């Protein structure tokens, strides 16, 4: 892949929201997480794309306090009573999940990915030994990404992709390279 194309692919995966599709979810705020457009957050916070876990990200960086008395999560609901940042408990759950995904908490992004993609391998559809794969690997700047840079792969497909990503497994030598 050419450098320019590669760069734009990385950026695209970073902040692109997932394409909408109909899902069966228990809570409306979970649907809000999955189809959230994180663009604003990515322009506000510093991401170390070469790290799996961000760990320096704080709520106020991602969801700054607003001066207009509205909830920081962007739902548009006014803060009342003793509430200082989130208008409802659902807002807190939504914002916590968004934070955990971008921060790199595997339990959280695996959960939402499973809801979106289904608990099956993105390549061969197997339901066994699934693990989450960074489509653009962390080593190449895919860390701290949004859900769009993740996919569930079975162990075999994950090994194959990792080999392809990093070239660990060299192709078998052709007849011309066999010793004579
Ligand atoms: Zn809210
Ligand atoms: Zn597979």
Automatic annotation (TrEMBL):
CDD domains: HNHc (cd00085)
Pfam families named among the record's database cross-references: HNH (PF01844)
Taxonomic superkingdom: Bacteria
GO molecular function, one term: zinc ion binding
Family annotation (InterPro entries): HNH (IPR002711), HNH_nuc (IPR003615)
UniProt domain HNH nuclease: residue ranges: 107-159
Cross-referenced SMART domains: HNHc
Protein name: HNH nuclease domain-containing protein
Organism phylogeny: Bacteria, Pseudomonadati, Bacteroidota, Cytophagia, Cytophagales
């Amino acid at each position: 892949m050419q450098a320019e194309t590669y760069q734009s692919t990385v950026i695209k995966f970073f902040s692109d929201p997932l394409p909408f599709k109909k899902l069966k979810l228990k809570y409306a705020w979970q649907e809000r997480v999955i189809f959230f457009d994180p663009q604003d957050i990515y322009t506000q916070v510093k991401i170390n794309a070469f790290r799996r876990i961000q760990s320096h990200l704080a709520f106020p960086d991602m969801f700054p306090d607003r001066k207009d008395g509205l909830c920081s999560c962007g739902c548009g609901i006014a803060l009342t009573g003793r509430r200082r940042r989130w208008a409802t408990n659902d807002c807190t759950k939504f914002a916590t999940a968004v934070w955990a995904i971008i921060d790199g908490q595997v339990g959280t992004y695996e959960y939402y990915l499973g809801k979106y993609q289904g608990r099956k391998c993105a390549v061969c559809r197997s339901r066994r030994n699934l693990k989450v794969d960074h489509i653009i690997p962390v080593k190449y700047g895919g860390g701290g990404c949004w859900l769009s840079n993740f996919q569930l792969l079975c162990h075999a497909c994950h090994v194959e992709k990792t080999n392809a990503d990093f070239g660990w497994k060299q192709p078998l030598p052709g007849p011309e390279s066999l010793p004579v």
